[in-house]
Design goal:
Layout: H1 2-9, E1 14-18, E2 33-34, E3 39-43, E4 49-50, E5 58-62, E6 75-78, E7 87-96, E8 102-109, E9 113-120, E10 123-129, E11 148-158, E12 174-181, E13 183-184, E14 186-189, E15 196-200, E16 208-215, E17 221-230, E18 252-255, E19 261-263, E20 270-278, E21 282-292, E22 303-314, E23 320-321, E24 328-336, H2 343-346
């Protein structure tokens, strides 16, 4: 058991090796976020307050022409008075995962308007004339959003005509929705990826395999899973009566031990790890340990082989992955006795 205790001691660790200086991520309970962070849907409501001289902003009544895809309040908003030519400016801050891959607007009015402008962190991302909402944000302006706290501002200028405030039976007001979707690129990598590694293992061997998961951005990943699968356990030297095999009686054992990793304690074939709040341009490193014990019943053995495959996957409901081709990898491991004649065995570790 002492050998196993050593394995446990050097088992899986997860280390953030490259981070960003981003603000804290958006809380999972933020009502304007969609699902696990796939996007956002921000509505006009009491969270918006007047700016640039606009005062008395209030909710007028619920907006009922559409149903929000989240728990964000959706209300017509306005001020206590309406005057032709008046400029209504409202603002609020929101915490986002990063710049969205797309963003769009929807607007409705119970008054005649001259112009509507939407600003993100002080940068104009959409304008429209008349009772129209701005078009979708062009790709060249999506970088106005960033990870962390964003300041959103909507400016509606009432038309100058005398009857501008009398467009309907409802109190002069306006409603809007700002929507967007997040996308980022998560990849995995290892010095052994796609290779065959040889190990000198007459008396057994316990190599550690380092694998890193990187979020290339531009958005934060609230949650992801990382899994490693071993090809097989090999021979069982002393099976239990029920057919199971004690960990120290297996030819191969895959181990990982950390607060974020879980071993397959039945077959010792897989390792599963949780990743939380992986920032843009941040890398998290995992170490898995493969324990090889040669079969003493086969004194003339030469080589034994196994394989590892791994994959990182953003949690369902989170940002989409812009490149799924680099989410997985694999490596082959060959354990050699001194009798092996393979070229790789001669220079193995």
């Amino acid at each position: 058991m002492r050998a196993l205790a050593c394995l446990v001691a050097i088992g899986c660790t997860a280390v953030a090796v490259a981070g960003s200086s981003a603000a804290p991520p958006a809380p999972a309970s933020a009502p304007y976020l969609l699902g696990g962070g796939s996007g956002f849907q921000i509505h006009s409501n009491r969270d918006w307050h007047g700016t640039a001289g606009t005062v008395g902003v209030q909710e007028i009544q619920p907006y009922t022409n559409s149903t929000p895809a989240n728990t964000d309040r959706s209300y017509w908003i306005g001020t206590t008075t309406c005057k032709p030519g008046q400029k209504l400016a409202v603002t609020r801050s929101v915490d986002l995962l990063g710049p969205p891959s797309s963003a769009s607007f929807a607007f409705a009015y119970t008054m005649y308007t001259a112009t509507t402008t939407v600003l993100v962190n002080g940068k104009t991302v959409g304008t429209a004339t008349g009772n129209n909402g701005p078009p979708s944000v062009p790709p060249s302006l999506l970088d106005a959003f960033h990870d962390g706290t964003n300041q959103l501002t909507v400016v509606v200028k009432v038309a100058s005509t005398p009857t501008a405030c009398n467009a309907g039976t409802q109190k002069p007001s306006f409603w809007f929705q700002i929507s967007g979707y997040f996308a980022t690129n998560v990849s995995v990598g290892s010095a052994l990826q796609g290779k065959t590694e040889y190990f000198k293992a007459d008396g057994g061997k316990t190599p550690a395999v380092i694998i890193h998961v990187t979020n290339h951005g531009p958005d934060l990943v609230p949650a992801a899973t990382f899994t490693v699968q071993m090809g097989g356990t090999g021979a069982c030297y002393k099976p239990e009566a029920d057919g199971s095999c004690p960990i120290l009686e297996q030819m191969f054992v895959l181990l990982a031990h950390s607060d974020v990793c879980t071993d397959d304690k039945k077959n010792w074939l897989t390792v599963s790890c949780s990743i939380v709040d992986l920032q843009p341009n941040q890398t998290t490193q995992f170490i898995v340990v493969v324990h090889f014990r040669p079969d003493s019943r086969q004194p003339t053995w030469t080589t034994e082989g196994n394989s590892l495959t791994w994959r990182a996957q953003i949690q369902t409901g989170g940002p989409s992955d812009t490149n799924s081709s680099d989410d997985s990898g694999q490596a082959s491991l060959t354990f050699c006795s001194s009798r092996a004649t393979d070229e790789g065995c001669k220079t193995g570790q």
